[in-house]
Amino acid sequence: MAATFFGEVVKAPCRAGTEEEEEEEEQDRRDTPEDREVRRQLARKREVRLLQRQTKTSLEVALLEKQSCSKFIIAVGSNASAFLSSFVMTSGVWKEVGCAKLWNEWCRTTDTVHLSPTDAFCVFYQLKSDPSVFLCQCSCYIAEDQQFQWLEKVFGSRPRRNMQVTVLTCRHVTEYKTSESTCSLPSPFLRALKTQKFKDPVCCPLLEQPNIVHDLPAAVLSYCQVWKIPAVLYLCYTDVMKLDLVTVEAFKPVLSSSSLECLVKNVPESTEILKKLMTTNEIQSNIYT
Amino acid sequence: MASRYDRAITVFSPDGHLFQVEYAQEAVKKGSTAVGIRGTNIVVLGVEKKSVAKLQDERTVRKICALDDHVCMAFAGLTADARVVINRARVECQSHKLTVEDPVTVEYITRFIATLKQKYTQSNGRRPFGISALIVGFDDDGIPRLYQTDPSGTYHAWKANAIGRSAKTVREFLEKNYTEDAISNDNEAIKLAIKALLEVVQSGGKNIELAIIRRDQPLKMFSAKEIELQVTEIEKEKEEVEKKKSKKST
To answer: What digits encode the pLDDT tens for the residues B146-192?
Structure first.
């Protein structure tokens, strides 16, 4: 026990452990009904929901559980999403099959009920000509406590092993640990990380130690490693994290990989579409010139 | 390790880094690309114009600024820092002219700007300027000059250089294509600057601004039409080269 400046006596935290007599009192003090209610509400607010955007009905079964999936391509971030939009989605007809709605402290919108089309955080598409090919464009930050929920709702509790997962994402080049100075790095550049079951050749060098992968891409790779699903992550280190032509084009070597080569048809036309995508996102802040 | 030594500008890390200066160099990369080329009889500055909001007056968003009649500079990085540096440089140019009755040399004003930047890397309570600058001009001896400064306060003379976003890509292009032939002709030097920018500029000629200084002539800013003409010529030349290649292969 200790006295504070104001003379009140408070229990000082003790590393030796609590005394048994006081334990029962403490347990009652710990969990009031209000605390439990607040925790319940917070959990409900942070719940990851997968639903059909048009009908706003929740998907009862995990996305990849009800249909067989041979290829699943996930783009995390604006540059990776733009790459898929221009090079992959323009080469076929894709149908939107669901979106993931979630809220966390990083979200700009506080309204989790009425999500506008531009807010949809993760959108899932299915290729009409080959319904076993799925694609996801994720433009939000998924917090650590939500990542497992997202994985379960997308992959299901017992994912099939006969699919191949490809993840594309970007990271700032200053987070790349190397003995060289960042000024001499050829950014943007690609690095790959794969699960044990992924046997195809990768189209760039593997990620060197001690670099690690973070956030949703790390969660997806870990999940695939545990469930023995072949998966590969292509990570682009760039010095421009917002939508940028040079960064998006740095993903081009991935077009020759086994996951994407049959999905891409017209590269020059896709490059033109990419340039148009850039112009619609052009207005920049006045802080930097 | 970095986090313990990167908050104060006046503190070295154990391995000799001044992290605030290095972080200032990252701020430079947030600015759009600027390229400078020193020709035989011309100096060229080309920049990627950032798109302005609908209600914003485009004339107030300038990346190429004249420091004196014979010197101009382009910058990349924090807009407000650039304004302060440019104002100080302009005052120094006039002060020099009034004191010694001669216009500044390009090297003098570059050294002045670099010294100013270096002071801010050694003062307590201040942060470095978050800009790199390309300074071009002709001295009285008629020799063209191109200098580059960075937030650390260093300055070097260059034949051609780029700063800002994707500067590395542009510099690599210049290293491959900067030849004595390419810069002997004024028009070719201008085309080289535009080609270098087109490597990284998102939407072609309409987002490029260009300025040149020829020997004994004042600074000339290219109009959008003139730039468009140059871009069209460059595209025609590209097509012709590609046609020749395809003919050879068949």
So the answer is: 999 999 999 999 999 999 988 988 999 999 999 988 888 899 999 99
Contact (CB<8Å) A289/B29: no
Judge contact between A248 and B172, C-beta under 8 A. no
Mean pLDDT to the nearest integer, A170-187: 83
Distance to chain A for B21, nearest Cα, Å: 13
- Go through B83-99 and write b for each residue having 16 or more CB atoms within 10 A of its CB, e for each that does not: eebbeebbebbeebeee
Pick the residue from chain A with its C-alpha nearest to B78. A288
Q: Which residues, in sequence order, are CB contacts of B2 under 8 Å at separation 6+?
A: B13, B17, B19
Q: What residues of A are in contact with residue B80 (Cβ under 8 Å)?
A: 287
Task: Tell me the pLDDT tens digit for each residue of B84-132.
Answer: 999 999 999 999 999 999 999 999 999 999 999 999 998 878 899 999 9
Angle formed by the axes of helices B186-198 and B224-249, nearest 10°:
80
Q: What is the pLDDT of residue A21?
A: 55
Provide CB contacts within 8 A for A224, sequence distance 6+: A165, A195, A197, A230, A231
Grouping H, G, I as helix, E, B as strand and the rest as coil, residue B31 is coil
- Residues from A contacting B (CB-CB < 8 Å) are 174, 183, 186-187, 239-240, 244-246, 275, 278-279, 282-284, 286-289
For B143, B148, B151, B211, B212, the CA distances from B34, given in Å and listed in that order, are 22, 11, 16, 11, 13
Lowest mean pLDDT among A66-75, B39-48, B226-235, B240-249: B240-249
Nearest residue to A198 (alpha-carbon basis) of A158, A151, A169, A165: A165
> By the 8 A CB rule, do A260 and A166 touch?
yes
Other beta carbons less than 10 A from residue A130's beta carbon: 12
Q: What is the pLDDT of residues A198-243, one digit of tens each?
A: 999 999 999 998 999 999 999 999 999 999 999 999 999 998 888 8
Enter the ipTM.
0.84
Contacts of B78 in chain A (CB under 8 A): 287-289
- Binning pLDDT at 50, 70 and 90, where does residue A106 land? confident
Show the 3-state SS of B44-93.
EEEEECCCCCCCCCHHHCCCEEECCCCEEEEEEEEHHHHHHHHHHHHHHH
Partner residues linked to B65 by β-bridges: B73
- Are residues A111 and A93 in contact, defined by beta-carbon separation less than 8 angstroms? no
